[in-house]
Amino acid sequence: MAIMEYIDAIRLAMKEEMERDEDVFVLGEDVGVKGGVFTTTKGLQQQFGEMRVLDTPLAESVIAGAAIGAAMYGMKPIAEMQYSDFMFPATNQIISEAAKIRYRSNNDWSCPLVIRAPIGGGIFGGLYHSQCPESVFFGTPGLKIVAPFTAYDAKGLLKAAVRDPDPVLYFENKKCYKLVTGDVPETDYVVPIGKANVLREGDDITVISYSLPLHFALEAAEELAQEGISAHILDLRTLQPLDKEGILEAARKTGKVLIIHEDNKFGGIGGEVSAILAEEMLYELDAPIMRLCGPDVPAMPINPPGEKFFMLNKEKVKEAMRHLALY
Amino acid sequence: MKTITEVVMPQLAESLVSATIDKWLKAPGDQIDMYEPIAELITDKVTAELPSTLKGTLVKILAGAGETVAVGAPICLIEVEDSSAGGQGPSTEFHAGQPSAQPQSQVASSGDQSMRHRYSPAVQQLAAEHNITLSLVPGTGLGGRITRKDVLAYIAAGGKNEQAAPAVAKAQVQPSPVQPLNMDPQVAVRTTGLHLSETPRIPQVEVEGQAIPGRGETFIDVTPIRNTIAQKMRQSVTEIPHGWMMIEVDVTNLVVLRNKLKDEFMKREGVNLTYLAFFIKAVVNAIKEYPIINSVWAVDKIIVKRDINISLSVGTEDSVITPVIKNADQKNIAGLAREIDVLAKKTRDGKLKLDDVQGGTFTVNNTGSFGSILTQPIINYPQAAIITFESIVKRPVVINDMLAVRSMANVCLSLDHRILDGVICGRFLQRVKDTLENFDAETKLY
């Protein structure tokens, strides 16, 4: 076991996978010589050479398109979108090509591709460096989407994504890069895709979330425990496909569900989770399903008070959790 | 006055969560200007000077050289001259981060009980499974709501739970800013048969009723318009002591006049020249002579209205509406005929605007149009009187000891006996009668 930062865990996963499998390679803007704007790919080009760590033009559609082609030919590309905000030019490649190849070719072809993209705000990044694009890709069958919140999950999910036979979007949270540290085994392990993870047992309220807000929820739960409120916390881990069983099991523990995500509320993942609950367990609900999300405004503001207003934090999460517990 | 303010570690670059202080450029006691560098910082990305965001004196360094400090954490204290009066220094900001837990009231079972009878599906399911009478279960949720946990605790305690309220109950609840709707069905909302304050439901069935199988009855939902009519009628009949009079009018000459003009009028104006237009003209003339007819009872005084706005009863299949001819005294017969036509069409098409039905001071009802020869109208509250114009029928009439066949019509008046008496109303009706009988071939429409 080693204590390391979230970003180091991502780098370690790529390094290990590239060592394990010669077909794995990395491509993206500034991933080679510079080692990535966040240093996520630092040292990989020195270790694996220019042919396996490719600096690409500033054209996300090309990055995704080239990676899809390589994947169809049996390579295992890890394509980096510098910020998930820059991912939208590649949307057509991802949604209309990568997601559909297996289906379209009647199982003859597959696309074992990983696209890494940093999501989230609170880093003084403003409109174009803070977005959460989950909802854009979420409704696309054929894609898998994962979103780790700890260093352990960051490594394990990335390894699982590389080994998955289909395209996986890997949404890493850029605020977590250096904020989050934790134990990461140096052994070869994977965190299974499609399985939610219970982080905390409780019987008053169930909190369902993913990525950064889970840290707020865990801290808030700790403090609320002193008020006599016991929270059950579920990390979705995989956003597509959602772990329906896991969600229902967690919700049944308390009958009161709070869904939290930084992506804005309307059309977000919370809506789908709450629809599952409404369809499957209406009669076991003890309170209206509650969502705490980013506001429905076009983007994260650049001014600090605006950013603070937009971002979730422990206090906001705690307030919502308490509100639901008292209902 | 002076306040001590913290300087915090700024976010120097994206994705940075902390920075290390390389060295301090200022020592405690030093004067610091706005934007003057106070320390040098090292981060993964950059090495930078930290400019002061305040002007004042450095009081204390909280993080020494070589220490790594999280973004947002304080690194030093600066004493600032505060020009603004009062103790509202920036230091109050430190309290702002606390959750707003102070203005909270203890939720006691005797407090707000508005959600006491609002059962969630989970609670109902558990109660059904375990055969529990929910009224016996203590509720610890918001507004006295019985939570799922309350039921579980009740079951665990063998169904006779007295005070085993779960831990949540001891937590505090924030008072809601708005008084919530009372969801307690034991508090009756509807007190009488006719519900006056609530907007009635939109009916599920417009014309047809819902037949109840096995019973010879049909339920028809009350429409909003029907509800309004019911409300107004009841108010009028209960509040206003109605008096009633009738007078007989010989309209033979009017019939002749109208028959002479109606085709030409239709051609020129495109609307029907109705008897009603003549009748309203006669009524308006009479009101001008007896303005008290155009008034409202106001308990300790009578309000006489200057404007003569005639409410016109227009019936539709399932209701009656009274659109208003504003300033009817300023219109000639042709103008009235046109106005009547427009309002009647609007009413039947359901296109009346609020403005079209407001401000009436006296009501005219053309009951003759549906064949009646005698009606006892209910006053259009809060007006003082209502007049009807009945069917024109040919009758043998004695004139100068000779029998003649004349076109006769009755005119009926219901009056608010608090305001009006027989004498004044008799004169008023006589005036209407005179005007109607004096319409002849020479009468001008314009």
Automatic annotation (TrEMBL), chain A:
UniProt cross-references to SUPFAM superfamilies, sorted A to Z: Thiamin diphosphate-binding fold (THDP-binding) (SSF52518), TK C-terminal domain-like (SSF52922)
Required cofactor(s): thiamine diphosphate
E.C. numbers: 1.2.4.4
Keywords annotated in UniProt: Oxidoreductase, Thiamine pyrophosphate
CDD domains the UniProt entry points to: TPP_PYR_E1-PDHc-beta_like
Entry keyword annotation includes Oxidoreductase: yes
Domain named Transketolase-like pyrimidine-binding: residues: 4-179
UniProt keyword Manganese present: no
Pfam families cross-referenced by the UniProt entry: Transket_pyr, Transketolase_C
Molecular-function annotations in GO: branched-chain 2-oxo acid dehydrogenase activity
InterPro entries per record: THDP-binding, Transketo_C/PFOR_II, Transketolase-like_Pyr-bd, Transketolase_C
Leading EC class: oxidoreductase
Protein name: 2-oxoisovalerate dehydrogenase E1 component beta subunit
From TrEMBL, chain B:
GO molecular function ontology, one term from the record: lipoic acid binding
The Lipoyl-binding domain, residue ranges: 4-79
Keyword Transferase applies: yes
EC number, as in UniProt: 2.3.1.-
Cofactor: (R)-lipoate
Start and end residues of each Peripheral subunit-binding (PSBD) domain: 118-155
SUPFAM superfamilies: CoA-dependent acyltransferases (SSF52777), Peripheral subunit-binding domain of 2-oxo acid dehydrogenase complex (SSF47005), Single hybrid motif (SSF51230)
Pfam families assigned: 2-oxoacid_dh, Biotin_lipoyl, E3_binding
Coiled coil: none
Record-level GO cellular component terms: cytoplasm
Region Disordered, annotated ranges: 84-119
Compositional bias ranges of the Low complexity kind: 98-110
Record's keyword terms, sorted: Acyltransferase, Lipoyl, Transferase
Keyword Transferase appears in the UniProt entry: yes
Similarity remark: Belongs to the 2-oxoacid dehydrogenase family.
Protein name in UniProt: Dihydrolipoamide acetyltransferase component of pyruvate dehydrogenase complex
